[in-house]
Amino acid sequence: MEIEALSAKLRKFASDRDWEQFHSPKNLASALVVEAAELLEIFQWMKEDESKNLDERTLNKVKEEIADIQIYLLRISDVMGISIPEAVTAKIEKNAGKYPVDKAKGSSKKYDEL
Asked: Other C-beta atoms within 10 Å of 75: how many?
């Protein structure tokens, strides 16, 4: 399903429940951060190799948290009139300038340290 269709579906879901009153940018950003923290909590005490080999139950929990994160990201972008594909494309172009391949390849350094 395309981003626009998902956003429309979520807009209707919120509207049907009269939730737009709660979906301010501030509240949606707060909810997004909470859901991201819930995703992080799943991995909190795992070793690197454990995080790459999840059992089915844990993988399902990860899927649900990723869905929650995406829902709030779509809602905040919709409420604020931001096109996610356009914003992502612009950010990739900006990052390409900050992290040129010849300097950044294989490095985890921040752009101002390259």
From this structure: 23
pTM: 0.89
* Three-class secondary structure of residue 21 per DSSP: helix
Pairwise CA distance, residues 23 & 76, whole Å: 8
- DSSP assignments along 7-24, one per residue: HHHHHHHHHHTT-GGG--
* Per-residue pLDDT at 1: 77
DSSP track, 33-100:
HHHHHHHHHHHTT--HHHHTS--HHHHHHHHHHHHHHHHHHHHHHHHHT--HHHHHHHHHHHHHHHS-
Instruction: List all residues 6 or more positions away from 34 whose beta carbon is below 8 Å from its beta carbon.
Output: none
